[in-house]
Amino acid sequence: MTIRDIFDTLDYGPSPESETEAKAFLDAHDRRFGHFLNGSFTAPGDQMFATAAPARGQHLADVTLGSTADVDAAVAAARRAFPKWSKLPGHQRARHLYALARLLQKHARLFAVLESLDNGKPMRESRDNDIPLAQRHFYFHAGLAQLMGSEMPDRAPLGVCGQIIPWNFPLLMLAWKIAPALAAGNTVVLKPAEYTPLTALLFGQICREAGLPKGVVNIITGDGSTGAALAAHPDVDKVAFTGSTEVGRRIREATAGQGKALTLELGGKSPYIVFEDADLDSAVEGLVDAIWFNQGQVCCAGSRLLVQEGIADDFHARLKTRMAKLRAGDSLDKSIDIGAVVDPVQLKTIADMVAANTEGETHHAPIALPQTGCFYPPTLITGLAPSARLMQEEIFGPVLVSTTFRTPDEAVQLANNTRYGLAATVWSESINLALDIAPKLKAGVVWVNATNLFDAAAGFGGVRESGFGREGGWEGLLAYTRPVTATKPLKPVAAYPAPADPAPADPVDRTAKLYVGGKQARPDGGYSAPVWGPRGALLGHVSLGNRKDIRNAVEAAAKAQPGWAKAPAHLRAQILYYMAENLSARSRDFTDRLRALTGTSAASAEAEVEASIARLFTYAAWVDKLDGAAKGVPLRGLALALHEPVGLIGALCPDEAPLLGLVSVIAPAMAMGNAIVAVPSQPFPLAATDFIQVLDTSDVPGGVVNLVTGSHADLAPTLAAHLELDSVWSFSSSDLSRGIEAAASGNLKRTWVNHGRTRDWTSPAGEGRAFLEAATAIKTVWVPYGE
Amino acid sequence: MSQPTTQTSALSVAHPHLPQTTEPRPSVQPLDLDWALDVAINTSAVERRCATLPGRRSVKKDYQAAWLLKAITLIDLTTLAGDDTAGRVRRLCAKARQPVRPDLLDRLGMPGVTVGAVCVYHDMVETAVAALAGSGIPVAAVSTGFPAGLSPLDTRIEEIRRSVAAGAAEIDIVISRRHVLTGNWQALYDEMVAFREACGDAHVKAILATGELGTLRNVARASRICMLAGADFIKTSTGKEGVNATLPVSLTMIRAIRDYHARTGYRIGYKPAGGISKAKDALTYLALLREELGRRWLEPDLFRFGASSLLGDIERQLEHHVTGAYSTGFRHAMA
Question: Looking at the predicted complex, does its ipTM rise above 0.90?
Answer without folding.
Answer: yes
